[in-house]
Amino acid sequence: MKRGFILLAGLMAATAVLAGPRVELVTNMGTLEVELNDTAAPATVANFLRYVDDGSYDGSIFHRLIPGFVVQGGGFDTDYKNLPTYSPVVNESNNGLDNQTGTIAMARTQDPNSATRQFYINLNDNQSLNGGRKVGYTVFGKVTAGDEVLAKMAKVDTGMNMQLRARDVPEQDIVLQQVRRLNNSQASH
């Protein structure tokens, strides 16, 4: 019996060590926490954390919202001006992670290796984004706290934004007020 408890405790400790970096996204609608999978998507996670660590996600917005699909942000300030980017990251979509409800993934153009700073959170299971025969969109983590915040975001009305020449733009700003890494003692469990 004692041996079973020791084995279980050892497995729990190993699992805790394997948990990826955690990031807090404080928005004007509430706070989300995401756990990043740096094992499945090491280049993508390193890229995302570069923007987190330099503070350049702070004050950016979620500029695209399609209820039942995705909420996308990180690339524009509240005046809809493009934010500076680092070099694009290599596509890691064949990493075994799917675009499922609550996962975070990189936005990109038609070029599979064009992702820079924009990311999205899946509001539904989006198999079409996994790629199938084509190269998909790289999933690199999942929301671990704040599902109610995503639900609140999904209810925001959207419309056409002539400045962006884009549809599906939230009519109420959804602002990323602060984005920061969490240490294990700060993360929700």
TrEMBL record:
Which InterPro entries does this chain map to?
Cyclophilin-like_dom_sf (IPR029000), Cyclophilin-type_PPIase_CS (IPR020892), Cyclophilin-type_PPIase_dom (IPR002130), E_coli_cyclophilin_A-like (IPR044665)
Catalytic activity entry: [protein]-peptidylproline (omega=180) = [protein]-peptidylproline (omega=0)
Its EC top class is: isomerase
Protein name (database record) = Peptidyl-prolyl cis-trans isomerase
Q: What is the lineage of its organism?
A: Bacteria, Pseudomonadati, Pseudomonadota, Gammaproteobacteria, Aeromonadales
Q: Which domain of life is it from?
A: Bacteria
Q: Known EC number(s)?
A: 5.2.1.8
Similarity comment: Belongs to the cyclophilin-type PPIase family.
Q: Any idea which UniProt keywords this protein has?
A: Isomerase, Rotamase, Signal
What is this protein for, i.e. what is its function?
A: PPIases accelerate the folding of proteins. It catalyzes the cis-trans isomerization of proline imidic peptide bonds in oligopeptides.
Domain PPIase cyclophilin-type intervals: 27-181
Signal peptide location in the record?
1-19
What terms describe the molecular function in GO for this protein? Answer: peptidyl-prolyl cis-trans isomerase activity
